[in-house]
Recover the amino acids of this structure.
């Protein structure tokens, strides 16, 4: 019993790391062969490690690269040819190295390396290392040339009017996409690394004249607390940026694949985090109302944008509450239903073998199975799953009497409504199941009680010093110009609505 408690405690308690476990910096040797042997030992004769030994400036030298990470043409023309065609008249190896660094190599990206750790990180990032016998340092040349996906329209955030560009996996390309849209000296990028094993590059992006210093300090402190071996996606570091012991199904950390969306958030004083290897860029702080806002809303007429905004609000309540209300009212409060509708539901429920709450949970389970299968399978097979699920399973289940037609209609309407707000699908799916159980156990009063709990949770959520429900709670009249309605740009441009100026903000 005590061992179980100890294991459970160790699962959530962060282990203490002693100072002795920190790696000690090892400096490069002046002997070239020792440096090469150290590389071969650390990489374990890896097939992609390339060490080309050659004469450099009349001395033994080597060019160290990683196969597939460098542009071979650039390496040959800008580095190798320059070294071969240059005469060195200097006496000492160090002077020859300085001439190589200052006069011979004409690369825009050069870094002097003194430790093995820095050398390993740079060579695995696509740099070419030039080592000369007799020098206790190496010259790293930026000749990156690995293949990556070209800039294309993101599939998760499609726009009718606007840019067709989306973020890609390389961090530098994503930084360029933002810089192209904000040609301002106040735009700042700060690079750092996370992950003790992967050493993933991340970039902190913000506008110095817009961002709150308190917000910037808090984000940097939370990033320092990231204790992971590998960071392969944006979701890895999201829990470290949110509040401690945050049990809310909604996240105050937004994501986007669109550079124009990120630029719009930066102009409001937000902070973006770009992670190398993923096209999803983190935005913080993120408000609840922003889940219902889309960049297309600001490219169309205000009256139509207001209509679509209200459609999203209605879709959110339908996707979250409709199945629970259907179960609760039909089971405990049938007096709320018209007689004609009540009669049809009663006939359908009487002809099925399961209680209404079990029937609703069953069909939701079937729907989630088909949705997951459609997402993970290749597209041709995904379409086949949709056909099988919609025509075969749905129609057959109703005709065989396993489920009722009203229940199937409610679930179908719920599924369509949930896709109107794709960024909120995860919390909606979770809350929907909880509302079904509440409606099946306590009827409409259980739905109202649970809705009040969710509302209190949303209003109490406060990350980075900004209320999650602002400007609704606390109420701000000026902020409502982009909540209840989408005002015209003549109104929106009168005042820049910074995140630190939201009602109730502590920034």
């Amino acid at each position: 019993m005590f061992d179980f408690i100890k294991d459970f405690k160790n699962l959530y308690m962060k282990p203490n790391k002693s100072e002795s476990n920190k790696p000690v910096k090892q400096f490069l040797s002046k002997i070239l062969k020792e440096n090469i042997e150290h590389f071969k030992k650390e990489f374990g004769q890896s097939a992609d490690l390339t060490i080309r030994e050659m004469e450099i400036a009349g001395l033994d030298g080597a060019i160290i690269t990683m196969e597939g990470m460098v542009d071979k043409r650039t390496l040959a023309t800008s580095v190798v040819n320059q070294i071969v065609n240059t005469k060195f008249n200097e006496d000492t190896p160090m002077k020859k190295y300085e001439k190589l660094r200052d006069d011979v190599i004409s690369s825009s990206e050069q870094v002097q390396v003194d430790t093995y750790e820095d050398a390993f990180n740079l060579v695995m990032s696509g740099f070419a290392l030039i080592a000369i016998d007799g020098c206790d340092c190496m010259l790293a040349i930026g000749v990156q040339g690995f293949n990556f996906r070209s800039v294309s329209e993101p599939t998760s955030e499609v726009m009718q009017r606007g840019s067709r560009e989306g973020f890609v996996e390389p961090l530098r390309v994503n930084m360029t996409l933002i810089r192209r849209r904000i040609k301002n000296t106040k735009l700042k990028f700060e690079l750092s690394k996370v992950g003790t094993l992967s050493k993933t590059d991340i970039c902190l992006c913000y506008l110095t004249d817009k961002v709150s210093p308190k917000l910037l300090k808090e984000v940097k402190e939370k990033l320092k607390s990231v204790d992971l071996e590998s960071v392969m996606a944006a979701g890895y570091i999201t829990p470290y940026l949110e509040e401690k012991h945050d049990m809310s199904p909604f996240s105050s950390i937004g994501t986007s694949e669109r550079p124009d969306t990120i630029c719009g958030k930066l102009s409001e004083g937000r902070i973006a985090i770009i992670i190398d290897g993923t096209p999803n860029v983190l935005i913080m702080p993120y408000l609840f109302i922003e889940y219902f806002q889309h960049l297309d809303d600001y490219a169309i007429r205000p009256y139509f944008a207001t209509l679509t905004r209200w459609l999203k609000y209605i879709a959110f309540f339908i996707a979250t509450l409709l199945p629970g209300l259907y179960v609760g009212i039909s089971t405990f409060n049938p007096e709320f239903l018209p007689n004609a509708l009540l009669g049809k539901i009663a006939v359908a429920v009487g002809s099925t073998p399961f209680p209404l709450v079990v029937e609703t949970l069953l069909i939701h389970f079937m729907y989630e199975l088909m949705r997951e299968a459609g997402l993970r399978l290749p597209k041709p097979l995904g379409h086949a799953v949709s056909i099988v699920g919609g025509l075969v399973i749905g129609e057959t289940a109703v005709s065989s009497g396993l489920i009722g037609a009203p229940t199937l209609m409610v679930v179908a309407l719920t599924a369509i409504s949930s896709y109107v707000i794709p960024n909120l699908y995860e919390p909606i799916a979770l809350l929907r199941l909880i509302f079904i159980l509440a409606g099946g156990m306590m009827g409409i009063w259980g739905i109202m009680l649970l809705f009040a709990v969710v509302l209190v949770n949303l209003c109490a959520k406060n990350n980075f010093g900004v209320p999650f429900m602002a400007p609704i709670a606390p109420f701000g009249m000026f902020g409502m110009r982009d909540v209840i309605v989408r005002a015209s740009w003549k109104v929106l441009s009168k005042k820049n609505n910074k995140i630190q100026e939201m009602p109730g903000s502590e920034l």
User: Anything to note?
Assistant: DSSP finds 16 helices and twelve strands in the chain. Residues 32-142 form one domain.
